[in-house]
Amino acid sequence: MDVIIYHNPNCGTSRNTLGLIRNAGIEPHVIEYLKTPPTPTLLKQMIERMGASVRNIIRERGTPYAELGLGDPRLSDDDLLDAVMAHPILINRPIVVTPVGVRLCRPSEVVLDILPAPQRGPFSKEDGEPVIDEHGRRVSIA
Question: Is pTM, for the whole model, over 0.90?
């Protein structure tokens, strides 16, 4: 079962997503995208599989987004992709690839929709928010 996570270990959402993958008994292929960014072709393929646009996966906060003028609606997907390739920090994270699909997992629980195996036990986010109960079921927030 091939599962890939484009991960930033400094990001809590990315760490929580990785934890949910492992809670399903899956040891994913972890790619620290800031060290090893995806190729433009691969990133385009992932975006297409998500049914998204390049703009949908761009991170604004803590990046050179504003300085590069990436909010300009006249920029094409190719223009945006060039900026992302030059500045991988612009890739929003984590992106998870499984046999079931590809998703930008924000919030981290989005990964549950594409995991090919069920959760094996309880899981709480780093901030203590419960996500999976003791029976391996998603906790519903009332």
Answer: yes
Q: Which of 3, 4, 5, 11 is catalytic?
A: 11
Cα Rg of the chain (Å, integer): 16
114: confidence class by pLDDT, cuts 50, 70, 90 = very high
Question: What is the identity of the amino acid at 91?
Answer: I
| Sign, CA torsion 40/42/43/45 | positive
DSSP of 49-95: HHT--GGGGB--TTSSTTTTTTT-TT--HHHHHHHHHH-GGGB-S-E
Categorize the per-residue pLDDT at 1 as very low, low, confident or very high, splitting at 50, 70 and 90: low
Domains in the chain, start-ordered, CATH in brackets? Answer: 4-132 (3.40.30.10)
105 is catalytic: no
Mean pLDDT of 95-105: 97
